[in-house]
Amino acid sequence: MAWVYWVRLYESKFQAGCLVKRMENDWWIYGYQSPREIEVFRSRKGRYGVRFVP
What we know:
Shape: globular
Oligomer: single chain
């Protein structure tokens, strides 16, 4: 199981959470396979990011 990290980090957990919801809902619209697991993580500097398992 290898995590794939989204390129951008966000200032708030809310912003990262919005990306997670969009990823969960948009995969089927564009014909991609949905990730098995998506989560918000916090970096050492306090910013938030998104990672997923394809």
